[in-house]
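job 3f2a | input accepted
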Amino acid sequence: MVKDLTVGRPMKLILGFTIPTLFGLLFQQMYSMVDTMIVGRLLGANALAAVGATGSISFLIIGFCMGVCSGFAIPVAREMGAGEHGRMRSYVMNAAYLSGVFALVMTAVTCVACRRILTAMDTPADIFEDAYDYIFIIFLGIPVTYLYNLLAGVIRSLGDSRTPVYFLALSSVLNIGLDVALILWARMGVAGAAVATVASQAVSGAACLVVVRRRFPILRTERGERRWDRRFCKDLCAMGVPMGLQYSVTAVGSIILQSAVNGLGSLYVAATAAAGRLNNLLACPFDAMGAAMATYCGQNVGGGKLDRLGRGIRDCALLGLVYSLAAFAAMLAFAPSCATWFIDPDQEAQAAALIPLVSQFIRILTGFFFPLALVNIVRFAIQGMGYSVLAILSGVLEMIARAVVGAVFVPRFGFDAACFASPAAWVLADAFLIPACALCIRRLRRHKDSFEREHHRPVHEFVRRRDIDHLGLAKQHKAS
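job 3f2a | predicted structure (480 res):
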């Protein structure tokens, strides 16, 4: 179902978009959660540490894939908001071509390099081979990661946040079944968890493709809309590559931090792995809010409804604050119980060592959830407006914070310092993003006012012109 986000109350629209997206992200997190729970409870702490040791590398590469696809969806949302459906379909086709190229190159490079990366990260010897088996298979699945995330991003750009949820639900069920079959029955160890993740995501992406072709006639292309177009590809890369790099730059700091935690030993690697999975689950609402803001801002910029941008950001920030307080309160009460999801309580020595560490980590993270909410809401709003290059700068600040904590404070203060690495990154990123967002809105309004004074035409005609720039608005011209 195609939905116009340029008309109606922002809070209602954002909630209507966020809730289905949240369910989709929760299903997506089930991939990681189920892997971690089954690995930790069936295979033990070393296997749990092996999966956890690959988390920052996975975020570096898979995060880039997801960021690129999110960026590719922004021009689609912009043209949807402007009513230019032919140009929208051309963007979709060129995004598919670029995704195919990126997927093939990234799969080849990462599969060759992953053993060297694990070595450079000082991965403990007792978990090295399991970590390698897991991440190698995950990297083989990069093409299906692109397939699903590109299709889901396009569908969300049309205002439909529900359809991708159905395929993630299917994928999650398959993932659980395959995990049990491959780990418990086939005895494939951590490799079985990776195969289950890739196979279930492949089914999800293929099903999504079939439904897109049948249920979204607005995406059916004509011959002229299928050609490779350098201008469209340039615009897509100007949006997608910075968003992908933002994830990857942020992950560089996570890798430095993970390397420092690796030096503390397998026990602390397992604790950070379990807390990280729990954090990813609890942070899903913020990712959903970010996805909502990217589409909301993209459509409203495309439609020239710039007065709605600030209102939407404020409404979404209020939602983020309410949820942040609720999540922190829940972890104060239930963090030890949640830790047992990943640890077999019958193994008393293991549980006694890990549960306090996991509880400490997740309580500190949720205590700083509102800064994380603002990072997602404001960053994706900026990207939806078309200023995706700024995402790299905020990612650099996150990288610096995590790298400093990992390189300087973790060796000195140990696990306690590692718990504060992400909160420091979120606060530093907010210090840049919040004023940057205000400047972006002012710049867009200045462009709009200047055009309407000069040409005596509404700004949506300005946006629809073919000579758009990387900001999502056309360059100003002298009198036509």
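job 3f2a | Residues 85-120 form the longest helix (36 residues).
job 3f2a | closed
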